[in-house]
Amino acid sequence: MEITALIISTTRSRAPLLRYAISSAINQSRGPNELVVVMSYYDREIKDLVDPYGFVIHHVSTGVGPMWARGIRESSGDVIAFLDDDDEWLQNKLSHVEKAFSSITGLGLYHNLFQFVDANGNELHCHELPAYYCSMILNRSAIIKDDLGLYMRSKVDEWLHADYWSLFYNTSSLSALKDALTSRLNLIESINLYSDALFFILVLSQCYTVLHEPIILTKYRIHAGQTSRKILNGEFMDMATRDHELFNRIIKEHNTCR
């Protein structure tokens, strides 16, 4: 099995954090077979850091979807482990990913638990954060292969507060079978914000199994420029609404698992 580590970076302001993300991918106990970084800006130092392990793609987009889709399309791994530019992996992340996909028949998506850290990488406990973040922690193992209609919500606010968010929250905690995504790249290109939710829905809509393990393998960074924090403050709601409409459309029109 070959694993691609795929990172996207949407803004130059996160370049310092991106270096930490790249280092965490490179320094795995089970290294990635390929490292792909999709960036909306040019940075020679980052390119030089990535080149021995893979390649950099320059792609400018207002949404994250086209950047993820481009990276998926040009990657060569059987499994793609996703990483946002402001997060990091623990050193044993890819070892667990490989074990899961090697041992579970029909696995399409793997989700691990994460540790909150501050801008400087110091550990944060969820009780130090808004209650929303504590609700994302799922301390039990879960295998999901359900009727996709269970995840339909009529209003975007209902979707954003659904009790199943913890099954896929944080893209950096997700790894997916590439074959489960390549036939749906047009849908991935349409996503604006919620790539984590989209990958979950796309995989389930094709009858693959989803596994959540309560093992901390990701450092999820809380900082002022964080997209999810801006959404909590009421920003980007037009994008959130369009993403919600896309989720419902996929569940209604692209569900082959019936």
> Average pLDDT value?
93
- Secondary structure tally, helices: 11
CATH-assigned fold name: Spore Coat Polysaccharide Biosynthesis Protein SpsA, Chain A
How far do the termini sit from each other? Answer: 29 Å
Q: Could you state the oligomeric state of the chains shown? A: single chain
- List segments where confidence is low: pLDDT < 50 over at least 5 consecutive residues: none
Structure report:
This is Glycosyltransferase 2-like domain-containing protein. Residues 7-101 form the Glycosyltransferase 2-like domain. Pfam families: Glycos_transf_2. This protein is an alpha/beta fold and 258 residues long. It has one domain: Spore Coat Polysaccharide Biosynthesis Protein SpsA, Chain A (Alpha-Beta Complex), CATH 3.90.550.10. Helix content is 35%, strand content 22%. Strands 1, 2, 3, 4, 5, 6, 7, 8 and 9 form a nine-stranded mixed sheet that branches. The longest helix is centred in the last third of the chain and has 17 residues, at 237-253. The protein starts with a strand and ends in a 5-residue tail after the last helix. The model has no long low-confidence stretch (mean pLDDT 93).
